[in-house]
Design brief:
This protein is α/β, with parallel strands linked by helices. It is built from 14 helices and eleven strands. The chain has two domains: 231 residues, no CATH class; 87 residues, Winged helix-like DNA-binding domain superfamily/Winged helix DNA-binding domain (Arc Repressor Mutant, subunit A, Orthogonal Bundle). The strands form three sheets. A four-stranded mixed beta sheet has the order 3-4-1-5, with helices on one face. The chain has a four-stranded mixed beta sheet with strand order 2-6-8-7. The radius of gyration is 21 Å and the shape is elongated.
Length: 333
């Protein structure tokens, strides 16, 4: 691991026992954009769409978001996570759940989350008046959610494609592909998922479902709840149409150079992957996947390594250079 960087590690007994499902709810998108907007309001970042959403909130609602985005901590009360991560819960139901929390519910939640350190100073205002805080957070989330409703409806096809992509990866034995989705800045090490975290923990995931929830609006924030006994939940950004339009020209150029299927594989290799995951990634048979990997290896774009009984592939520095060259914006003629 890189020095000076702390990592949370989620460990599995084996990839054969990992169970993954996908849920769709607007609530995580609202939560993530609220966090991103609150951070941008109090930092050097430009006025992003998320910051504009938060900027239009009443002053008290803005202040209610500040404890959640304190840069020294990533921990928040569990009540902010989806009530039932495995369900496609409407936003209105999630907000009703927040509003229904009692004084004692929130305090007990804070005590549990910060059991090792005591409630930090930036959460003390919530401790003193928890009911007022939940009301203001629900108000902020309702305000943001109202402005995301049209985008949420328009994203239905993207969400369906994402569920299909993950389902195909799982069905074809490419569980690593589905797990790699869980955190854009994460990485797989054997049977463990690792991601940077200022408050790192080691989690044993044995026997728990992995629930993935794609979030619209391209938030930079990644949400997760690792404390439930039966579920590990991750909310992650769903690529939007503008992403696809922006990258279309560079993708076409690289596809012409390598063939579309090999270019696709090269793009996927941001992290080392097992050969067993490649057929699911490419939607082809194992012999066909092996053929394409052989051609990329001959070109010096990927490297194959044997680890015990398995073979893993990774992009080479030359592969990185090719990908970077075709990702650069093209000058207008």
């Amino acid at each position: 691991m890189e020095s000076g960087r702390s990592w949370t590690t989620v460990s599995f007994e084996s990839t054969a026992t990992i169970r993954v499902s996908v849920s769709f709810s607007l609530y995580p998108s609202v939560f993530a954009l609220a966090c991103e907007g609150a951070l941008a309001m109090h930092g050097p970042a430009p006025r992003s769409p998320a910051a504009q959403l938060v900027g239009s909130l009443p002053a008290a609602a803005k202040r209610a978001l500040l404890p959640i985005v304190d840069r020294r901590h990533t921990l928040s009360p569990g009540c902010l996570s989806p009530g039932l991560p495995t369900s496609d819960t409407p936003l209105a139901e999630e907000l009703d759940r927040l509003r229904s929390l009692s004084h004692d519910d929130v305090r007990t939640d804070l005590e549990r989350v910060f059991a090792d350190t005591g409630v930090p100073a930036h959460w003390l205002s919530v401790w003193r008046n928890p009911r007022r805080w939940t009301e203001l957070v629900a108000l902020a989330f309702d305000h943001i959610g109202t402005r995301l409703e049209d985008a949420w409806r328009r994203s239905i096809r993207q969400r369906e494609r994402e569920a299909q992509r993950i389902g195909t990866a799982v069905a074809r034995g490419g569980i690593d592909v589905a797990l790699a989705t869980a955190h854009p800045r994460g990485r797989l090490r054997g049977t463990a998922l690792q991601f940077p975290d200022p408050n790192p923990v080691n989690v044993n995931a044995s026997g728990r479902w992995i629930v993935l929830t794609p979030m619209i609006g391209r938030p930079r924030a990644v949400l997760c709840d690792l404390d439930r006994p039966d579920v590990l939940w991750f909310g992650y950004p769903l690529a939007g149409p503008s992403d696809e339009t922006q990258d279309a020209r560079s993708r076409t150029e690289l596809d012409a150079l390598l063939t579309p299927i090999r270019a696709r594989l090269l793009r996927f290799l941001d992290r080392e992957l097992p050969m067993s995951a490649v057929p699911a990634l490419l939607g082809c048979t194992p012999p066909t996947a092996t053929h394409h990997c052989t051609q990329l290896a001959k070109a010096g774009l990927i490297l194959r390594r044997r680890r015990g009984r398995s073979v893993r592939i990774a992009r080479t520095p030359r592969g990185d250079q090719v990908l970077e060259a075709y990702a650069r914006p093209m000058a207008d003629c």
